[in-house]
What does this fold into?
Amino acid sequence: MGFSLHKRRVCGVMGAAVVATAVILVACAPPSTQLEKVKARGELRVLSRQAATTFYEGPAGPAGLEYELLRRFADELGVELVIETPDTLQEILDGVREGRADLAAAGLTVTEARARLVRFAPPYQHITQQLVYRRGGEAPRSLVEAARRGDLEVVADSSHAELLRRLKARHPDLTWRESPETDSMELLQLVAENLIDYTIVDSNELALNRRFFPNLEVALDVSEPQPLAWAFALGEDDSLYRAAQDYFRRLESSGDLARLVQGYYRHVDRYDYAGTRTFLRHVKRRLPRYRELFEAAAERHGLDWKLLAAVAYQESHWNPHAVSPTGVRGMMMLTRATARHLGIRRRTDPVQSIEGGARYLARLIERIPAHIPEPDRTWLALAAYNVGFGHLEDARDITRRRGGNPDAWASVRENLPLLRKRKWYRTTRYGYARGNEPVRYVENIRSYYDILDWYLQREQPAPPRRPVLAIATPAL
Ligand code: GLU
It folds into this structure.
């Protein structure tokens, strides 16, 4: 971005040597505030961490709650977003304190110790710390009991470590391990695989990762609800911090904050854990037969093959001969009319069915109004795949009338079920629809996608752990 808002202030200092008796000090303002500097450089530099709760590569590009909050903030400032992900929480906090980045947005808990070192913006979410164990074992009744009974490991320099250090003042024999390079998700995996006994993670981390580890259980909450917030350096210049404060206040009062948070958590609320086991079994046994078909069709239509596979699983459990009482059939469960429209002859032929489903989904994504950004675009298109485009439009219209945001999946999903209510469907163009089904449908697909993505990554050799740089251009 070539523009410059950066105005250098001329500042003069007259030394005391000029007139010994009358020392004239001309106040010298710094050349510009931090906010002005960010705007002048055209970049907001942020330290984050990669996790399902914060920032990750989703089916349609970068995603995550922190990522979305940051992208909106950067858009408001009219700058690009540059995210770096150091390996440890300590590096993230130090980086901000030492001015190597403008802020940290890493699912950071506002703790007493940290509040002395950095300045926290208004919270965007509240979590509790949870003690996690493996199902089948006996649930520990307290943190102290867990630490005595088995291996307890937490992320180094995390809020969890801070909690344990405080507890140790009263229980000097308390022991645990801290690992700087292992994140919460990996710790959960270690518990699930019986390599350690217990860990403490934030409730939001568990909510999103538990789907991958159906044998994990929460023993108890070990903290009060705690706020998560962005961290800024202390110091006199609080211009950027105040801009963020203002941003969060507006986000909160418009209801957008709650919607954004829900967008990331609602779909796991009702997740069926037994379903995960079946899904993983099918990933191992059935998916290999069809994977190349998904990859090829996805590539032809500019889709993520894992998303296509997740849709197919939701539709047919990857069974090419699936039939439903309503006459839809095949791997992608196309209706006869849709198949004809797409030029598909044999719906039970997996090659044709997958090609038809991919073509249909790509068309639907394209039909979603152009101003709606990802990932909502994809979620809305999936809802349309299930309920039909007309009904989706009706639900978006109801959303608008009820003061919601018709472009946000989190808002539309609240209103889709109203299509079953006479009071509402009477006022729509396409009338009655089983509007709760697309909600469930999209949520399941998101979960299948996440699990598949996680499973495939685990199969690959671990990537080198070095900072990742993501650059996102602000939406115009
Ligand atoms: N919220 C935790 C903290 O601020 C970090 C959570 C995690 O690393 O999983 O220390």
